Amino acid sequence: MQSTAFRLSPPLPSLRSPSLHSRRSGACYDAVRASAVAGSPDDVPPGLAARCFPPRRWSSVSPSSSSSSSRLRPWSGVGGFGCEREGRSRSLEARATSVPEAAGDGEKSGSVARTLELGLLFGFWYLFNIYFNIYNKQVLKVYHYPATVTMVQFAVGSVLVLFMWTFNLYKRPNVSRSQLVAIVPLAVVHTLGNLFTNMSLGKVAVSFTHTIKAMEPFFSVILSAMFLAEIPTLWVVGSLVPIVGGVALASLTEASFNWVGFWSAMASNLSNQSRNVLSKKVMVKKEESMDNITLFSIITIMSFIIQFPATCYLEGFKFTPGYFELAAKSGLNVKQVLVRSLLAALCFHAYQQVSLSFLCYSYKYLLLNLDFEWN
């Protein structure tokens, strides 16, 4: 008589793959790996087997076809595919272990690349700043017109900005009228800050000017408390004491001390920090926001427009061919002054752009690291 069979398990299409089943169940035990290692699912602890192993099928057989006393025997689901399933599980296991390693290597290489880029930006920032001070001092020693020198620097910067916008080297901004009105105060204090810096460099040594400019954090704390209501802590106030004391000591012992150079450097500190404080109050609305490089580019053009009439009023037209011809007769090396003025202006605009890029990029890098730590 033909034996009759009945099923006590779900039909075949409802069977899940062991890897998917174990992944969805949340167990940390791989049933396929256990079957390959232990040889039998019976060697697996009952608690894990109930959660990880796929459902079994049971068949009823006739007594003539089996010598066992039991009428039920376990059946492995899909017979004849044990080796294929084992090979598939091994390939899946190798793939699962290789992906985190590749991801870790990618994150490590990306972190190294970002660190190298930050280091290069920081190095170029200092390099351009050093050469700007050298060329600027050489020009101001023989050409005693700081307002004209400042105007030339803004003019060269404006030409570079327009060049980048014209040839799409940097995104051309779409600025509204309200934004331009808000940027005007920033351009005014930016112009004053650079003018006072050049006045100080023309009167005293470069080292002494930058020693006085080390007082910028002092002015930043005072102006932030006055206009932004940011009250400093005692630790911040205490950290300013050695700065103020060091500047005072350097001023008393400076051989090239000059009151005009000293107060010009102090006025430069006040102007630059006023610009930083005002920039926090400009473009507060999200729809009016712009990146720092675009903001600096617009400020540079505005500063040239402001500085040009101020230079003509303060120093006259000391940049015409007729004046340079007279100056050459009096012993001025006009070609050297023009070349170094151009180099100083290029270095000035370059270090300003690189410094903003460095600050923006370092801020994004900090956010990425914080996001990685939180996750």
From TrEMBL:
- Give the way it sits in the membrane: Multi-pass membrane protein
Q: Which residues form the Sugar phosphate transporter domain?
A: 117-359
Any idea where this protein resides? Membrane
Pfam families xref list: TPT (PF03151)
- One Gene Ontology cellular component annotation? membrane
- Keyword DNA damage attached: no
The UniProt transmembrane annotation reads 118-135, 147-167, 179-197, 218-237, 292-310
The alphabetized UniProt keywords are: Membrane, Transmembrane, Transmembrane helix
The segment annotated Disordered runs over: 1-23, 88-108
Q: Which InterPro entries match?
A: EmrE-like (IPR037185), Sugar_P_trans_dom (IPR004853), TPT_transporter (IPR050186)
PANTHER family in the record, alphabetically? SOLUTE CARRIER FAMILY 35
The protein, known as: Sugar phosphate transporter domain-containing protein
Could you tell me which species this protein originates from?
Eucalyptus grandis
Lineage start: Eukaryota, Viridiplantae, Streptophyta, Embryophyta, Tracheophyta
